[in-house]
């Protein structure tokens, strides 16, 4: 049996006294692009925050390549190989694109150094063309790309993308989609949270649906595409 890259096992997450996640199970195998779908407020971002160690689960555990990472501080989880790209694009605005990328440079947990400045510029030609521009002067879509690129510079084992298409113009959404597809085709392991199911249908290989803090469905993306009942019930199309 192949070992899962990411295994979320029965996590309960609370914000203060309110329980937000109820026994969430989620598995991502190496090389999969898993879409985590659900309505606004369903618990997608909270699941990501739990994995990244920002909202530590009260029960359950999270394993990366068989090693338990839940309970560690966020920086140690990042160092273990979880590359988390939060919803709010976080760039260093007073620094150039190139400086932002260099700041993110790190070998992977097993010494991997596939992602170098050169390779990132190859994958993100739009960033290469303006490498000396201040990050604060980029558009929202360009900042989103820079945040993804900077996270890749840390050579993560798995990339967590929280609603990368949110608030962006359709043409930029398409460019971000093309980029994620390229990463997928290179064999990257990706967990992608989205409200926009249509965006995921052309990108993801698998889908998990969360509703009211519980997992209600998991299948291949083809399975989801063919399942009108699930789409209507949980994804409001
Ligand atoms: N810091 C917080 N304190 C209390 N409740 C919160 C907090 N953050 C989120 N919630 C609540 O947790 C639930 C799940 O939110 P979450 O952000 O995980 O949903 P989501 O599926 O990512 O939706 P969105 O698309 O809006 O980001 C919502 O009911 C939300 O109101």
From TrEMBL:
UniProt record similarity statement: Belongs to the ABC transporter superfamily.
Gene3D superfamilies, alphabetized: P-loop containing nucleotide triphosphate hydrolases
Name assigned to this protein: ABC transporter-like protein
Domain spans labelled ABC transporter: 6-237
Domain of life (superkingdom): Bacteria
GO molecular function: ATP binding; ATP hydrolysis activity; branched-chain amino acid transmembrane transporter activity
InterPro entries the record matches: AAA+_ATPase, ABC_transporter-like_ATP-bd, ABC_transporter-like_CS, BCAA_Transport_ATP-bd_LivF, P-loop_NTPase
GO biological process, one term: L-amino acid transport
Keywords: Amino-acid transport, ATP-binding, Nucleotide-binding, Transport
Signal peptide: none
